[in-house]
Amino acid sequence: MFKEAHAKTTVGDKLAFYGAWANSYDQDIAVIDYSGPSLAAKSLSAHFSGDREAAVVLDVACGTGLVAEQMKTYGFRNFVGIDGSKGMLEEAQRKELYQDLKQCILGKQLLPVQRRSFDVVVICAALSVHLAPFTVVRELCNACKPGGYVVMTCFHSPENLEYNTALECELKHMEKEGLRSCVECNVTEIQKRRAGSVYLYKTV
Ligand SMILES: C[S@@+](CC[C@H](N)C(=O)[O-])C[C@H]1O[C@@H](n2cnc3c(N)ncnc32)[C@H](O)[C@@H]1O
To answer: Which of 71, 121, 131, 140 to mutate to test the pocket of ligand 1 (most atoms within 8 A of CB)?
Structure first.
């Protein structure tokens, strides 16, 4: 499963793959100590000083809902989830954590949300070559209220090197344009065998 998750295929193939994986994803991922959702939630929690119970979180590429589960442990309560895979959305629905779940293929469709309407926007393990194009970071930023946070995790696997360089370049452009400022960027171990980054940005 893990090898296939990083294989070179089209977005349609990848979404079909995640759909087929959906009902065993949580058990399989537990075996590899995948820590992206917990690190994203921890990083946000260390900086977020607003009302957590009132804050509305947009979880982009929510998968089965592991990010919302982790964020709930830090006091967040209101989640809207988006994913391209119907099977993943059905699993997320079962957890009864999300007020709303929407299907959207990032890079092909615009995020189906209002501009500047979320206190937090998070994307975990989907900013990757063959998954969501790096250009979606502008949409994530637009969905966030001024002063809100955008949290992103991504892998530093060899196949992602070019993608990550382009992503970081886009993030720098956005900082120069005054759209957001970097709060924290940690290179960390987000999965046992793969170092990755957690980026935390504050929108301006
Ligand atoms: C590795 S899983 C991560 C799920 C969850 N965020 C987590 O950390 O457990 C990647 C998710 O991204 C979704 N995804 C990948 N590419 C996508 C795209 N272009 N548009 C929408 N969803 C996408 C997949 O369906 C899958 O649910």
So the answer is: 131
* pLDDT over threshold 80, residue 195: no
Determine which residue's CA is closest to atom 25 belonging to ligand 1: 85
Dist CA 52 CA 77 (whole Å): 7
Mean pLDDT rounded to a whole number for the chain: 91
At which residue do the structure tokens 């399989």 appear?
Answer: 28
At residue 45 the predicted structure's pLDDT band, cuts being 50, 70 and 90, is very high
Express each pLDDT in 136-155 by its tens digit.
999 999 999 999 999 999 98
The alpha carbon of 179 and the centre of ligand 1 are apart by a number of angstroms equal to 25
Q: How far does the centroid of ligand 1 lie from the alpha carbon of residue 110, in Å?
A: 15
Ligand 1 centroid–CA 61 distance in Å is 4
Which class is domain 2-203? Answer: alpha beta
Domain extents for the chain? 2-203
